Amino acid sequence: MASKVLRVGIIGCGEIAQVGHIPIFNFLSLKFRTTYLCDASRDALAHCARMVQGGSPKTTTDPKELCESPDVDVVLICNGDESHVICGILALENNKWCLIEKPLALCYRDINLLIEAEKKSKGKVFVGTMRRYAPAFLEAVDEVKKMGPILYARVRAIIGPNSNFVSQSTTYPQQFSDFTDEDKHIRAEREKDVVETVLRDEFGVAVNDDSIKMFRMLGSLNTHDLSAMREIIGMPKSVLGAYLGLPGIYSALFEYDGFCVTFESGINAVPTFDAHIEVYGQDKIVRVDYDTPYVKGLPVTMTIREKIKSREGQESFGFSERVVRRTYEDPYTLEMLEFYECVVNGRPIKTTAEDSVKEIDLWKMIMKAGEHNYKSQSS
C-alpha cells in the first residue's frame, strides 16, 4: 500500500536545514515532501529551494503565511531558538503538527504559552531531541533498567569545532547575510527579552556576558545530553556543585538517590566528537557512544561490560565486553520516521513539550549551582 506523504513546511533555512533536514526529506520521499520554505534571507530561500527534490517548493519570509497554507500538513521549525515558540504557536493555531528543533524554548514563560496553545489545537508538538530515538540508546535504557542499583554515571560531550564535521558532511551548506536591519533588530530584541526573562526573573541569577554565554551553551550543545540522561537514569535531586567557566570545559555534579553523576562538556580545538553516557552497576557497565550527526553512516553504539559468572567451584576474575550496533541509520533519519508514525499512525509522542520543561529545570539547577562563576560581575 502506498503510504501517506506528509507535505512539510520548513521555517529556517540555515545550517541544520541544509545539512540534515532537507536531504533527509529528499531521501524519505515516500513519506515526506517539502512544499514550503520560510526564512528571513531570500538568498537562503533560493539556495534551499534548489536543494529540494520532487518539485519546487513555495517560499516566503513570513512564517504565518507558511503555517496558514493548505499546501502544508506539518511544520518543521529550525530557525533561531528565540523564535521557536512564536512559530510553534502559529503552527498550532492552524492545527498543524510541528517538529521543533531543540531547544524547544528558552524560558518557562514561553514553553507554558506553547503548551496552552497545544491544548487548543488539533496539532501536536514533537521536540527534536533525536538522540533519544537511536536504537542503541533505547536498548541501553532497557539494559540499565535490568542492571540493579546504579552506583555511578557519567555524561560527557566534549567536541571539536562543529565546522570540522559540517565541512565533511558532503552537503556543502552555505551561509547568507542578506538580512534587513529590521530583521536583525527584531531578533536581537527577542533574544534579549528571553535571556533576561529566564536568567533574571525565572532563575534569579546575574545577567552578564558570562552567564548569557553559559546559558546559551547549555541550550545549544547540551540539550541532547541532558535529555538523554533524563530518559536513561531519570531526573537528579540536585546539583551539588558546578564549574561553568567559558571558554573551556565546564562540569557539574548531579545528586541522585544513592549515587552521583558527573557531567562534563565544552568545545576545544581538537576535531573529535566525544559524546557518551556511561552507567555503572555492581556487575555491569552500560555505555552509549554518539558520533557527529552531520556525517551520514556513523553509528550510535552501546557497549556492555559485565562480570563473567563463575563456573561451579571456581572463582571468576574475568569480564566480557560486547559492542552493539543496531543500525547505520542516523538519529535524524530515525527521528523523522518516528515523527511520521506519530502524525500518521497515532503513535504516542515521547519528546513532548511537557517533557521539555525538565530541560529548563536542569539548566536552572546548573546555573544556580555555578553562580559563583559569574555573580561578581555587574548585572
Automatic annotation (TrEMBL):
Gene3D superfamilies: Dihydrodipicolinate Reductase, domain 2 (3.30.360.10), NAD(P)-binding Rossmann-like Domain (3.40.50.720)
GO MF, one example: nucleotide binding
Pfam family, one: GFO_IDH_MocA
InterPro entries (alphabetical): Gfo/Idh/MocA-like_OxRdtase_N, NAD(P)-bd_dom_sf
GO cellular component terms attached to this protein's record: cytoplasm
Domain Gfo/Idh/MocA-like oxidoreductase N-terminal: 6-128
GO term, biological process aspect, one: NADPH regeneration
Name of the protein in its database record: NAD(P)-binding protein
Organism of origin: Lophiostoma macrostomum CBS 122681
Source lineage: Eukaryota, Fungi, Dikarya, Ascomycota, Pezizomycotina
